[in-house]
Design a protein that fits this description.
The protein has 11 helices and no strands. It has 230 residues and is mainly alpha-helical.
């Protein structure tokens, strides 16, 4: 039987290049799934073991070897960065959802501060791990914390604060809108991390009270408190 040139062409399913591309795509999907599983396992391990957990500790709790974690993340800083992207992404979405239901900029601030403190308090060990905090030193951090996932997170939150301010105050207050959100982020983060790291006591505010305090400091400063003591 004669075969015409049209009949002799290789079909899509028989194309060697297509088969290679398909295998590569499946392998990439497998790697991404495995990476997500490792991040989830590492998060559980750090939550249980503490922010100082070593790669060996984390791998043991995850039921695998530390060479697997090194293969997927390079080193501990890479794991912290990857976990930070996941955790901070979830935190950012929670803060955004909370702010969207607010009726005023002040309510929006309170909602975002509350969501931030709630998620940080839900696992202080994980929060410390992804921000490279040294226990007892709320401001201590290294280069990985000052950039990457953490830096992007605070940039996004700064914009989340600036957007409603711009709509509420108008463009003629651009200097305030440009500088104040960045200063606000510093206050929220430093006060929040100090609160998170302080031991429980009768004088330590609960989460709701701390969120209200920070919101008041942002909107009113400490002038009202000073006025009552003079």
């Amino acid at each position: 039987m004669n075969i015409s040139p049209a009949d002799s062409r290789v079909g899509p399913s028989e194309d060697p290049a297509g088969a290679i591309d398909g295998r590569a795509a499946r392998w990439q999907t497998h790697r991404e799934e495995r990476r997500r599983d490792l991040i989830k396992a590492a998060r559980k391990a750090v939550h249980a073991l503490g922010s100082d957990a070593s790669m060996e500790d984390i791998a043991g709790a995850a039921g695998t070897s530390k060479s697997v974690f090194y293969r997927y993340f390079g080193d501990k800083a890479g794991l912290q960065q990857a976990m930070g992207e996941v955790v901070l992404g979830q935190m950012q979405r929670r803060m955004k959802e909370a702010a969207q239901s607010a009726q005023t900029p002040r309510e929006g601030l309170f909602a975002m501060v509350s969501a931030y403190l709630q998620m940080a308090e839900s696992s202080p060990n994980v929060y410390a791990f992804i921000t490279r905090l040294t226990p007892g030193e709320a401001s201590a951090q290294d280069a990985i914390a000052a950039s990457g996932a953490l830096g992007n997170f605070f940039e996004q939150v700064t914009e989340m604060i600036a957007t409603p301010m711009r709509q509420y105050l108008g463009e003629d207050k651009e200097a305030l809108i440009e500088y104040w959100p960045t200063a606000a982020i510093g206050l929220v983060r430093n006060a929040g991390e100090m609160w998170l790291g302080s031991p429980a006591s009768d004088t330590k505010p609960n989460q709701a009270t701390m969120a209200a305090n920070i919101t008041d400091w942002l909107c009113l400063g400490i002038a009202p408190m000073l006025a009552t003591t003079t």
